[in-house]
Amino acid sequence: MSPSKQDNTGADFERHLVEQMLAAARAGRDDGEPQVEATPYDWSTPHVLTSAQRARLEQLAARAATEASGRLAALVRTELALTVVSISEHYAEELTAAEIDARTCALQADDRTVAALAVGKAQAAAWVTRLLGGEDTSSDAAAELSPLQAALLTDVLGALAGGLSRLALPAGGAVTCGEPACDAWPIEAEAGATWVCVGLAIAESDEAEPVLRLIVPTASAVAALEPADAEPVGPPEQQRDDALAHLKQVRVPVTAPLAVLAPMRDVMALSPGDVVVTEHEVDGVVGIRVGGRTVFAGKYGQSEGYYALKIVSAEGQEASGSAG
Q1: How many domains is the chain partitioned into structurally?
Q2: Residue where a domain terminates, one of 184, 207, 223
Q3: Does residue 212 lie within any of the structural domains?
Q4: CB 64 within 8 A of CB 166
Q5: What percent of the chain lies above the pLDDT cut of 70?
Q6: Which domain holds residue 190?
């Protein structure tokens, strides 16, 4: 079959398929169950994270929540545990325009905003009241904060940020809390930027919604999944040389025993000044062991005032040198 004939056959097949699809659409024909199941795409929400990345992010967020729980518990002097209840993706325009019923602050590093943190007003009031030495959490959560309350809330947010910093600043380092604000996310981002919201709740609580939310750029969330000290893998030859270089730095025991067999009664009768005669001649060859395996033969001697071993053979080959 010539190339032109083959091309025409392919074109005729495609044309025939298109004609069938158009005819079915005009007739409104229903051929039964569709062969491909289509799922409507929600264009209002970004879908950057893969299912594998989301699973790994959930694990990382759970570890960060444990760290944040410990820091906050030490501050407010009460037992508590935070647990991850949601991970969602958002466009920056949606977050900057959204009003939320929470106390919020920007997390900064090197004079730039790296994340945003929000605590529900009722929960924030409870923790601040706890720091003030009270147990009653029925104070007006919506009331304006006094300078003292704002300072205490900053301490609370700082403790939380310290535990969640691995998510907020993947490269490491400290993050600082901005001044607590209300009813809006304290972030400024260019249009089209995407953010990941990690929602946390207090374990064994009746609250179904998160009481704490951390907003981080999607790029930072993905970067947090990579090891901080990861290095690019080179070609096989380079990997082999690197492995050998590491192996050469491993310290192994090198021994040359002078074995002697003696009855237990003679050993128990030994005292300072006694001489134990071995079965090795002074000029004899002894086995030199590396990691418990005999790999060299050598003779005893001295070098610069230290006992030494002179290598006389290795795997049947003559060699020379000394080891202290």
Answers
A1: 2
A2: 223
A3: yes
A4: yes
A5: 77
A6: 51-223
For the chain, the average pLDDT equals 79
Residues 294 and 288: beta-carbon distance below 8 Å: yes
Distances in Å between the alpha carbon of 148 and those of 75, 134, 151, 155, 231? 16, 15, 5, 11, 47
Q: How far apart are CA 271 and CA 231, in angstroms?
A: 59
Q: For the residues of 27-49, what is the DSSP string, one character each?
A: HT---SS-SS------TTS---S
Looking at residue 160, its amino acid is: L
> What is the Cα–Cα distance from 17 to 99, expressed in whole angstroms?
52
What pTM did the predictor assign? 0.58
Residues belonging to the chain: 324
Residue 237 CA, distance from chain mean position: 29
Widest CA span in the chain: 114
Asked whether residue 192 falls in the same domain as residue 309, the answer is no
Q: What is the DSSP letter of 280?
A: S
Instruction: Write out pLDDT tens, residues 311-323.
Output: 888 764 544 444 4
Residues 177 and 315 both lie in one domain:
no
Residues 308 and 176 in one domain: no
Task: Say if residues 288 and 309 touch (Cβ distance below 8 Å).
Answer: yes
The CA-CA-CA angle for residues 201, 205, 210, to 5°, reads: 25
Decide if 198 contacts 216 (C-beta within 8 A).
Answer: yes
CA 32 distance to own-chain centroid: 48
Answer yes or no: are the C-beta atoms of 192 and 90 closer than 8 Å. no
pLDDT per position as a tens digit, 229-280:
445 556 777 777 777 777 777 777 778 877 778 888 887 888 888 888 887 7
Q: Is residue 85 part of a domain?
A: yes
d(CA 139, CA 234) in angstroms, rounded, equals 61
In a domain, 142, yes or no: yes
pLDDT confidence band for 208 (50 / 70 / 90): low
Q: Specify the CATH number for the domain of residue 303.
A: 2.30.330
Q: Report the distance separating Cα 293 and Cα 313, nearest Å.
A: 15
Do 103 and 153 meet the contact criterion of CB atoms below 8 Å apart? Answer: yes
Two tokens, residue 215: 């907003």
Closest of 255, 195, 232, 205 to residue 45, by C-alpha: 195
